Amino acid sequence: MTHPPQPGTNPYAQPGQPGPYGQPSRPGPYDQQPPQGQGPQQWAAPPAPPARRGGMGVLKILKIIGVVAVLIAVGVGYFLSQDDADHAKAGDCLKNNGTQISPDLQVVECGGATAEYKVVQVHQDTLDTAKCENVSDIGYQEQTSGGRRSSGKKFVLCIDKIKK
Fold first, then answer.
1. For the whole model, what pTM was predicted?
2. Which of 71, 98, 108, 121 is most buried, taking the most CB atoms under 10 A from its CB?
3. What does each C-alpha distance from 7 to 2, 29, 32, 69 come to in angstroms?
4. Contact at 8 Å (CB) between 119 and 158?
């Protein structure tokens, strides 16, 4: 059962127009006009969050891979250079990876089959192989330039050939 509208209330009437019984309708909460000089109140949308690119960019991943590759190369080069003749001490054994004219001596295990020479003395900051006379079979001198695989120093190794 529906009830007739109450006098003075007309939900469908415009403000100031008579209601169903000839009485003016009362303004409702949605019938108010905005204050003079202002338009209807508008709600602003909240600011959008900054646009994110999905995940890590390809360029960033390539940079990380490049840095890791360089670090690995530097580490391998460092450890390989630890075997060079400029790190030899008295009692170390050496093998020649070069030729008699252009030797490339590297430190090896003395009990190994590749050991060819044994270091008797080491003289730093000199290229005078005469210091090895009456001490060893061979005086080997080297001056490194401080390049990629060397420490930039000069030295003489007094070495004996290992008899097999």
1. 0.46
2. 108
3. 15, 18, 21, 87
4. yes
Q: Could you give the count of Cα atoms lying within 13 Å of 155 in the half-sphere of its Cβ?
A: 20
Burial status of residue 40 (CB atoms within 10 A of its CB: 0-12, 13-18, 19 or more):
exposed
Q: Are 140 and 157 in contact (CB under 8 A)?
A: yes
CA dihedral 117, 123, 128, 129 (to 10 degrees): -20
pLDDT digits (tens), the chain, 164 positions:
566 655 555 555 555 555 555 555 555 555 555 556 555 556 677 777 776 665 668 888 889 999 999 988 887 776 665 557 777 888 999 898 888 888 888 888 888 888 899 999 998 888 888 888 888 888 887 776 665 555 567 888 898 988 76
Beta carbons of 42 and 31 less than 8 angstroms apart: no
